[in-house]
Design goal:
heterodimer; A: mainly alpha; globular; B: Rossmann fold; 2 domains; six-stranded mixed β-sheet; elongated
Chain lengths: ~290, ~325
């Protein structure tokens, strides 16, 4: 306790006492719209965001173009035509989604690990001490950006592949529901991958650790496990995000669309991969020291 | 107003803050002193709700920080410089902070101007010097014009102009009725800036009170006496209960008696005085004496004996 001493202003226990001072009031009000706006500004005031988003569009387009060229080439042979029976043009237009999955997931992880590694998180939580709105705002901003950037990548991929696909009458029709099922499925999957990464990033806090876990789960495990031809490993592998996603982002056998899972089962599994880490992150966020 | 009650923070079996209670009042600058690892930063983080107390409570203006509707209006904080993403410009950083509270862009420009960052406002923070980082931290602390300021080492890395600017700023903020709570290792600076002190060591409060009272409670002031009759005077003063040392012939350092008593004694015995000067102990010396046992990381010195408390400077 401080002992009595001459004080410039008589001390008082009333919290409103300072409000009577004569100085202009700076208008300030904390609400969720403000937090959302702050997270939007945070994301787009970093150069790395622009790089990552630009890279996403470029890689998805180039991959779609390469795949479209390769597949349409092999369609000219009888064996190729047999392999790609049931092929839908939209599968080729969205063919770059695995690259998008990687760059978007890295962006999602960095969105929060970048704050922990730099100390920015303390400024963030000082402004929003209830914390949970920060995670919610990050999730909303990330989902919105993912939807928009995926849509842009589809447009560029559509334009880039159209000349090749025209020859084989594979340009996806915009009136065909299957086109929209595939495009919507890929978009939803990328949003889920972003949420998974954001959740893991919030839980692990470290950029290196989070990116490793995210890339391993999304890409490396499905790639490696397919060579382990033990039944239970193959069964388990279907429950990883990428194999589960093929149940609703593809329709032809060649792209893995004829797995054991129905489209809705696949969607449920992918949603679980997104939601469970986010819920765990939300629970831990309030409990741990920043 | 910041009130802590039995505030405790343990990390595993290490107790960083050990059941401390204190009140930081509005209208004053309260200096927070303590050796490295004493628990200062942990205490400040707990005030802001960044760290959860293991037990005990701390409130700002009557409520836990997180329960305030407009947190940045309640407390502006500078916690270790560069709690900032290095890839963002100073202006963008302040802009994101301002956005959470719908604070206008005009106010962002104002604090940039006020903290002298106008020339570098659009540069990325990664390239900032420590001093510029501190100014940015102070700018974000002032952003919503808070009633309480918590500043952890605000002058660290600032040039002499900057140090003086922070001193004036902090005094002005307190004069406007705000609560200012700041830590610093610069004792001379603290002595000039703070009204009240809160000294902690090993997570416990060592002492608290107005600056001069704290100094006086630890170190008695010394009276420097010069006299042609120094030897005679020394025995008289020792008889009166003083501790007398003689740094050089004809000069005495007297502790335990006031200048008035010494002067009167000399007058009564017809001993001439050439100098009679009361010397206040410095905050630094008082701090050293206070925290001697509480220093966590002490470097060995080549001096075999520690300087005794109250040794002449």
């Amino acid at each position: 306790m401080t002992t009595t001493a001459p004080q410039p202003v008589s001390p008082t226990t009333s919290p409103t006492a300072a409000g009577s001072r004569i100085r202009p009031v700076i208008p300030a009000k904390l609400d969720f719209a403000g937090v959302l706006g702050a997270e939007w500004r945070k994301l787009f005031s970093l150069r790395s965001t622009w790089w990552t988003l630009g890279l996403t569009v470029v890689l998805m387009t180039l991959m779609a173009l390469g795949q479209a060229a390769g597949v349409t080439d092999s369609l000219d042979t009888p064996e190729g035509a047999a392999t790609f029976v049931g092929l839908h043009g939209a599968e080729l237009v969205t063919g770059g989604y695995q690259f998008g999955m990687l760059t978007i997931a890295v962006l999602g992880a960095l969105l929060i690990t970048g704050e922990y590694s730099t100390g920015m998180i303390r400024s963030t939580f000082a402004a929003v001490p209830t914390r949970l709105p920060v995670l919610a705002a990050k999730g909303i901003v990330l989902a919105a950006v993912t939807v928009v950037i995926t849509a842009i990548a589809f447009v560029t991929s559509y334009a880039a592949t159209a000349p090749i696909l025209t020859d084989h009458d594979l340009v996806p029709s915009l009136t065909d529901p299957t086109t929209w099922q595939i495009a919507g499925g890929v978009t939803a999957f990328l949003v889920a991958a972003a949420m998974f990464a954001l959740g893991i990033g919030t839980l692990l806090r470290s950029t290196a650790g989070s990116v490793t876990v995210v890339i391993t789960t999304l890409l490396l495990l499905p790639g490696i496990l397919q060579f382990i031809t033990v039944d239970w490993v193959q069964d388990a592998m279907e429950y990883l995000p990428l194999p589960a996603a093929t149940a609703f982002v593809t329709v032809s056998d060649a792209f893995g669309g004829a797995g054991d899972l129905t489209a809705w089962q696949g969607a449920a599994i992918v949603a679980a991969w997104a939601i469970v880490p986010i819920i765990a992150a939300a629970i831990m966020l309030g409990r741990r020291d920043a | 107003m910041i009130e802590a009650t039995n505030l405790t923070k343990r990390y595993g079996d290490k107790t960083a803050v050990d059941s401390i209670s204190f009140t930081i009042r509005p209208g004053t600058v309260t200096g927070f002193l303590g050796p490295n690892g004493a628990g200062k930063s942990t205490t400040m983080r707990m005030i802001l709700g960044l760290d959860q107390p293991t037990s005990g409570t701390v409130t700002v203006n009557g409520k836990p920080y997180a329960e305030h509707a407009t947190p940045l209006r309640e407390v502006g904080a500078l916690l270790e410089a560069k709690a900032v993403h290095p890839g963002r410009s100073a202006k963008a950083h302040l802009g994101t902070m301002a956005a959470t509270h719908h604070i206008r862009a005009k106010r962002v420009d104002e604090v940039i101007e006020l903290t002298g960052l106008a020339a570098v406002a659009n540069k990325r923070v990664g390239g900032f010097s420590l001093g510029m980082g501190q100014r940015l931290g102070i700018a974000s602390a002032l952003l919503a014009d808070p009633d309480t300021l918590i500043l952890d080492e605000p002058v660290n890395g600032l040039d002499p102009d900057g140090v003086q600017w922070v001193r004036t700023l902090v005094r002005d903020l307190a004069a406007e009725g705000r609560t200012v709570f700041l830590s610093s290792h610069l004792m001379s600076e603290m002595a000039q800036t703070a009204d009240q002190l809160l000294v902690i060591g090993k997570g416990r409060i060592i002492t608290t009170g107005p600056v001069q009272e704290v100094i006086d409670s630890v170190l008695a002031s010394t009276v420097r006496v010069r006299s042609p009759h120094a030897t005679d005077l020394a025995s008289l003063l020792e008889a009166a209960g003083a501790t007398v040392t003689s740094p050089e012939p004809g000069t005495l350092d007297v502790r335990g008696l006031t200048g008035e008593t010494i002067g009167d004694t000399a007058y009564t015995h017809h001993l001439a005085l050439h100098e009679l000067a009361t010397q206040q102990a410095s905050l630094e010396a008082a701090y050293m004496a206070l925290t001697q046992d509480a220093v966590e990381y002490r470097s060995e010195t080549t001096t075999p004996e520690p300087i005794p408390a109250g040794a002449p400077r």
